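Q: Hi! First time doing this. I have a protein sequence and I read that you can turn it into a structure. Is that right? Here it is:
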Amino acid sequence: MTNANLLRKVPLFSDLPDAEIESLAASLRVVTVGKKEVLFRENEPGESLYVILAGGVDVVLALETAEEKTIASLGPGEFIGEMSLMLPGGARTAGARSNASSRLWEITRADFDALLGRQPSLAHGMVRAMAGRLDTTNNAAFRDLQEKNRQLQQAYDELKAAQAQIIEKERLERELQVAAEIQTSILPQELPRVPGYDFGALMVPARMVGGDFYDVFLLDRGRAGFVIGDVADKGIPSAIFMARTHALIMAEVSHGGSPADVLRSVNRHLVRLEQPSQFVTVILGVLDPQTGLLTYARAGHELPLLLASGGTVETLPHTNGQAVGMFDDLLLDEQSLTLPPGGTFVLFTDGMTDCRSPQGEALEHERFRTILGGLAALGGQNVCDALLEALQKYQCGAPQDDDITLVAIHRQ
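A: Yes, that's right. Below is the predicted 3D structure, encoded as structure tokens:
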């Protein structure tokens, strides 16, 4: 097929007179390019336009940069580069790069200007084509702007959400710090010394601070008091309720009542606060070191254990008991026993038996009793330390969900 016949198939030139077609065909130069070859770059002077005979060409903004964007792909019969011949200044408004091995006709500025002079109607077709190109480009630019706005809004929303999470995390960390400080502030700095007895105690707070507390304190007539408690809930509300409960217990103890009387009085105070979601399990007791008699009241707390000098572990007699702060009429488990020489009275919170291995299996009471049975030769604090060591070995780095608290009273 001759160049003239090929030109007649190009929509831009199809309406030209035959003589004009023949003249234009005689002046055309064929340009051959390989795949991914650059024809021209944005802002370069434009001295020719191209008609695609075979292959294809991409129109590209910001060619060969990080911001590169293809705005059109042209094929056989379409032309490219006309904008620089029509606009003042003659600079390329975009880059062009072949997307396949291609053959193109090149029409120089001189030939194009001469053709327009002879065939002014050609300008109308050119303008229509340019308008279509601009419309396509503008639509693509608008869609691109919409997408960038969407991405920007998404990034903003994600940043805002991340900022909110950071603020919430900081708030929780401050709350945990305050709760931990409250919890630590009520624990005794050191345990009292009573001839013939060895007291031991420890507490390991969980990451989410709970409401465990303990205390060992001296009373009149050489006696010693002890208390262990576990408040439901976690965080600052739990810590405040724990501190209030401890303060009420110590205030009532100073009046000289029995452990049961003290807990019933504390219960009346807490129930009047009308905070039904908060309650505390407690064991409060008194040791008479002259006789070894332990008298205690249990309010819904874990059952204490007696470790005999021979290594047997005994669950002590008990009845039902209710947590403090729940009901007006508090049901208590009131007990007493004489601590035998070499024996150890052990109190603990459920964080001890509920702790889990990396496989998620709880320690539970039977394992706890087995571990405790091997510690009969140790004193009060050594028993607590050995229990904690065994527990941490069982956990093997697994997360700790609750406070772990131990109190041990050993009779030498």
